[in-house]
Design goal:
This protein is of the alpha+beta class and 596 residues long. Helices cover 41% and strands 20% of the residues. It folds into three domains: 3-256, Bira Bifunctional Protein, Domain 2 (BirA Bifunctional Protein, domain 2); 261-388; 452-595, Threonyl-tRNA Synthetase, Chain A, domain 2 (2-Layer Sandwich). Bound molecules: serine.
Length: 596
């Protein structure tokens, strides 16, 4: 059975039980600032789980793109990955435990559906605590369904009880809908690995039992004071990882040999001229991280040093590092692999096709940048080892701070050389640095333009170049509508009636970088508003600056009224990069850009 057949079977099964198919939401949550990414199928449905009526009804089914990076270090084993698809069915105040469990069992074991052997199926339920009682109802239902298959489901043999840590699905943020859950595990038969503990159990991480599906009974809401209040509407939220169930059905050695990953791995073998079996770990990381990155870019994320952009950057860079690890003499081809991913998934997730160019551009730019960083970082790492035979947490921080070399990579290189790194020391250093930059941004918050830090000045000058470049590329209807600068990025709003094309974005970016390269002098003169107008200066004239204004000229290229601060020469700006172009309101566009 192919993964696509599996997706369809799941939808068909639940359609036959009265469910309506809903589309997958974006990986970037629309209205939930408490999480960076959609990490489960229920995220986009939170308002409906809390009682808002869903336009498609109260029985829903779908497959949802998800991203979880908490297990990133496990990626490369047989079953962990970052991006995954989650098959899910929902009851919004409609059916509850009985139907949910019966249908899960039917879908998994019936010959008409997946036909898995019920003898190899094990389940867990919530053991109860001060907030909620033991889930006896689910135990009774499981016993009943197993009995119909001739299996006597004893507690401690087939049904196991666990506390909240394992059998409670909580909200991603601090509050929200939650409740006890019941998980299904499939016995894979692989030998227990004692590294995971002396005795194996269904929740052991060794891989002998694989968690395949989770039925959550959302009957509580966690309140800000930490209490759990019964919800008026009792919901069901289930989630089955597509990669894992495909792996079971296709009887592969890991999720990576399923048809969800195999075409990507084969293409990587071809591009790299190396065999998967000779470096399984790195091939898996490349396939997983690149697939995740392609989906993230398609959902509008760009690599950067903060939040979502940072996770994306980390995924791309880690993929590239393992790409090099497989074949050090190759570079620049990783973006080629993205094409295979787009071809493979584009018919299911059309955003991938629509964003083909953007995906290519982001991956290529990031690869180029990272090749330089990685080269410098590895050299410095080797030098440190040679010099002092060890790397301290402070050294690791310096590699990060000075060369942009991520801690995870320092850790990986160190692991390869059997060197321990003091993570606490790194964290302390990191914290100190954060406190300093936080103090910096508080300062900025207080002072606005009174913040004359160097990075701000570089951004201000870059903003003038961007303004002029946009007028050159798009036309003289372009005027600044707003601007906001932080130490990490600039945001520039301007009048323009339509979305910029990729070509226009590239031209604008190139024009700014061209002027940076020319290292133009930045001068300021005090003029009256009328004089400034006569000089052809652009800027906000609405009397905001009083009678006298400062006119900043950048070579002969730009003349603009502004309060500063600016740098002396454009060469000090660094490399300018547009990371996003989007609408703000009718006729107003926004560009987000960074300098690196
Ligand atoms: N929210 C649950 C999970 O992600 C079931 O969908 O496991």
């Amino acid at each position: 059975m192919t993964a696509q057949e599996l997706r369809n079977k799941f939808l068909d099964f639940f359609k036959s039980k009265g469910h309506v198919v809903i589309p997958s939401a974006s990986l970037v949550p629309e209205n939930d600032p408490t999480v960076l990414f959609t990490t489960a199928g229920m995220h986009p449905l939170v308002p409906f789980l809390l009682g808002q009526p869903h336009p498609a009804g109260n029985r829903l089914v779908n497959f949802q793109k998800c991203l979880r990076t908490d297990d990133i270090d496990e990626v490369g084993d047989s079953r962990h990955n970052t991006f995954f698809e989650m098959l899910g069915n929902w009851s919004l105040g409609d059916y509850f435990k009985k139907e949910a469990i019966e249908w899960s069992f039917e879908f998994l074991t019936s010959k008409d559906w997946l036909g898995l052997d019920p003898n190899l199926l094990f389940v867990s339920v919530f053991e109860g605590d001060k907030d909620a009682p033991r889930d006896d109802e689910s135990i009774a239902i499981w016993r009943e369904v197993f009995k119909k298959s001739g299996i006597d489901a004893e507690i401690g043999e087939r049904i196991f009880m666990y506390p909240k840590k394992k059998n409670w699905w909580g909200p991603a943020g601090l509050t929200g809908p939650c409740g006890p859950c019941s998980e299904m595990f499939y016995f894979t038969g692989i030998e227990h690995d004692p590294r995971y503990g002396e005795i194996c159990h269904i929740n052991c991480d060794c891989g002998r039992y694989l968690e395949i599906w989770n039925d959550v009974f959302m009957e509580y809401e966690k309140k800000p004071d930490g209490s759990f209040e019964p919800l008026e509407q009792k919901n069901v939220d289930t989630g089955m990882g597509l990669e894992r169930i495909t792996h079971i059905l296709q009887k592969t050695a890991s999720i990576y040999e399923t048809d969800l990953f195999w075409p990507i791995i084969q293409k990587a073998e071809e591009l790299l001229g190396k065999l998967y079996q000779d470096n399984i770990h790195s091939f898996r990381i490349v396939a997983d991280h690149l697939r995740a990155s392609v989906f993230l870019i398609a959902d509008g994320v760009s690599p950067s040093n903060i939040e979502r952009g940072y996770i994306l950057r980390r995924l791309i860079r880690r993929a590239i590092r393992h790409w090099y690890n497989i074949n050090i003499s190759l570079s620049g081809l990783i973006a080629e692999l993205a094409k295979t991913i787009i071809d493979q998934y584009g018919h299911i997730y059309p955003a991938l096709n629509d964003k083909r160019d953007r995906i290519w551009l982001e991956l290529t730019q990031e690869s180029e940048k990272f090749s330089k960083t990685i080269g410098r970082g590895i050299k410095e790492f080797d030098r440190m080892i040679e010099r002092q035979k060890s790397i301290s947490g402070i050294d690791a921080f310096n590699l990060y701070q000075t060369y942009g070399f991520p801690l995870e990579m320092t850790m990986e290189l160190a692991r390869e050389k059997n060197i321990a790194i003091n993570k606490n020391e790194f964290s302390n250093e990191f914290k100190k640095h954060q406190e300093l930059s936080r103090a910096g941004s508080e300062q900025k918050f207080k002072g606005g333009l009174a913040d004359h830090s160097e990075i701000t000045a570089r951004y201000h000058t870059a903003t003038h170049l961007l303004h002029q470049a946009l007028r050159d590329v798009l036309g003289h209807h372009v005027f600044q509508k707003g601007s906001n600068i932080t130490a990490e990025r600039m945001r520039f709003d301007f009048s323009h009636p339509q979305k910029m094309t990729l070509e226009e974005i590239k031209k604008t970016e190139d024009a700014v970088n061209e002027k940076i390269k020319e290292n133009l002098n930045v001068r300021s003169e005090v003029k009256t508003i009328n004089e400034a107008k006569e000089l052809g200066a652009i800027g906000l004239f609405e009397g905001k600056y009083g009678e006298n204004v400062s006119v900043y000229s950048i070579g002969d290229y730009s003349k603009e009224i502004c309060g500063g601060p600016h740098i002396k020469y454009t060469g000090e700006i660094g490399k300018f990069r547009i990371i996003k172009e989007e609408a703000v309101s009718a006729g107003v566009r926004r560009i987000k850009a960074v300098i690196e």
